[in-house]
Structures are given as structure tokens and as C-alpha cells.
Hints:
- The protein has an 8-stranded mixed beta sheet, sandwiched between helices. A 5-stranded mixed beta sheet has the order 13-12-14-15-16.
- It contains 15 helices and 16 strands.
- A hairpin with an 8-residue loop joins strand 9 and strand 10 (277-283).
- By secondary structure, the chain is α+β, with helices and mostly antiparallel strands.
- The model has no long low-confidence stretch (mean pLDDT 92).
Amino acid sequence: MINIPKGTKDVLPSQSYKWQYVENTAREVARVFNLKEIRTPVFEHTELFTRGVGDTTDVVNKEMYTFEDKGGRSVTLKPEGTAGAARLFIENGLASSPMPVKTYYITPCFRYERPQAGRLREFHQFGMEIFGAESFTQDAEVILAASSFLEKLGVRTRLEINSIGCKTCRAEYNAALRKYFAPHLDGMCPACRARFGKNPLRMLDCKEEACKKIAAAAPAITDYLCADCADHFAGLKNLLTAQGVEYTVNPRIVRGLDYYTKTVFEFVSDAIGAQGTVCGGGRYDGLLEELGASPLPAIGFAAGIERLLLLMENTSAAFPEDGKPLIYVAGLDDACRAEAFKTVCFLRSKGIAAETDHTGRSVKAQFKYADKLGVKFVAVIGGDELASGEIKIKNMSSGEQTAVKCADIYAYLTKE
């Protein structure tokens, strides 16, 4: 027996309709907000993530699936979607397109983490990435798109927002953080001590309990914003308020990736344990430049599909019913089975979901199987039906039986 790898999960036939519901909802929200789908490779050159995501992040330092291919090149299974989207934007010359360029994706991602509820080593994200708009109105639109997606799924969350500034105000804030953390370094983990010199902002994102306690009293970035960042954040808050969007400012949100600037946000739930963030994102105005392109503002978000499904199941959110065949066509013997198969093929060509037997069941067993499938109608073809050209159709709810000419079966089903 070969078992599934740790930290991965099968999607069973009884569950796949839930995935399709979430994905279809994502695509509908993307359509309404005028986003076009992109698809990037499952693996990229490792440098894309070390430069884009940041070499002081947990993702790069601890969680990436990195290996050398047969050509001796270092490649990495993508741990998130934004860096690949930015690479796609640059490499395919989309900077010459009318701005903003508005994109979305539904993609698998991979991180080597300790598996737990809502956290897998292979997981899936619905994400939006928008390039070329620097206004806080674009920030508001992205947050509203995320909010609309969650509301359509019936998911209850709270929105937390923050601004982590730009290069100008980040330098002053980093100096304040170093001054604060310096006396506490001996009590912090090795990763935080390494981040102290390179990127002290990352120390606020540490998951070690001792480090979290020390970081709790650190200075807040919102006290160090430059005038431009402060105005940008104020404009965003005013727009959200005007749209009736409830939010709280959480100065501890820094997100786990280095490319973020200015606005960051998270939609959080307490219903799925420690992995409470079901959707998060923000602005990353410096990422394209970091990857070698001309500077261009950008913003996006990603929502974890597994976490969303877990939250929906834990809170009894309503899923639509799984799709069922409309009709099952049963045959009494080989000749009748052949006619049943012909009838099913005709109905399917017309867009009717239909099913028939392929295992040699008796008529009684076929009725039991049809009942398990949840079909609305069962049609029975026997010798008399072959001779008369009529099929008896039973309504499984009412028990009513109707004789219908073979040529009229499609009209009968669509009339119902």
C-alpha cells in the first residue's frame, strides 16, 4: 500500500462539489470586478522567491520545497502566488497594457510546514493581483472584492487592516524596532536574532511564544508613517467606512512576506483554531522593481481554499446540493440495455444528465442504484417498450408513471 504524502489531502467525489462551489464563486467575483485569469507554473526558479518573498521570511528560510533539477538548476515549488504573477507580468510585457492590469488565479501552493487543521503542505489559493494603480481607491476595491467573495460563501469574518509604510518611513521604524529589541535579544529565538540586523520588521511576525510576548510591547508602525503613507491609510479607512465595511486597525499585522508596503489586511475567523486568517493581502509597490523591472505599484490578496472549506463546514455555511443525474434509464436484457445506452447518449447530447447500468444489475437492483444516485426519474425499457417505441418513466418522488414515446422523451423531461 502506497499512502498519500504527509500534509496532502485527497478530494473525494463526495467533496469535490464543495470545491467547485468555492472556485465558481471566486470566478464570479473576479468577473464582476473585471479580473482576467492567469496561470503560472507550479515551479519557478528559486531566485524568484528568495528575491521576491524575502530571504528573512519563514517561507524562504524554512518552508520552501527547493530542489536541483537534472540540469543543475535550483527550482522551487511555488509557496505563494504573487511572485509568480509578478514574474508573468514582467516577462510577458504586460507593463505596456492599459493600466491597471487586473488578474486572478486559482492555484496549488506548497510549503513544508507541520500539518494541522487548515494548514497543509500542498494547499490551494484563490488570489487577485492588480498592477499599475497606486491610489488607495484600488486598495479599497481589492478589500471589497475579498469581502464580497467571503460574503457570497456565507463566511463570517472580521477585517483587520494596517499600514506598514514605505521605504521612507520604514527606515525610521526599523531603527525604533532595533532600539526596542536590543535589550531583549538574549531571550529571543535564533531566527529573530538573525533578523535583528537585516529586517527587524520580521521579528513582529515570529511564531515563537517567547518572541511574541516580547514583540507585544514593540512600537507601532502607525506612529512612524510618513505623510504620504499616513494620507494613503486615512483615505482607505474613509472609503471603507463610506462603504459600510467594518474593520479594526491592528498595528501588529505585518504579513509574512517581505514584499508588502503600505496597506496590509487580513480577514480573520476564530472558528478554525490557530489558523484563523482565511484571506490576507496588501500592497507591494516595490516587488516589480526588486525583480528587475521598472517600479510599478501593485496590490493583491490570497484566500486559502482549504481553510475556507474548513470554516464553512465548522460554521454550517450552506453549500449547494451536489449535482445529480435527472434520469436513470434501466434495461431488462441485453437488447434493452443497448436501447437504454442509446437513449442515455441521446439525452446527454442534449445536455441532460443521464445514467444507465454498466454492471449487469437486475431491474430491482437498478432501481435501488438509481435511488442512491438521487435521480428524479427512472425510465424502464423492456421487450414491450422496444416493440411499441414507448418508454415508461417513473417520477421517483410521486411514484407516478407515464408512457412517453422514445422520440418525445427529451421534450417530456425539459417540460418537467
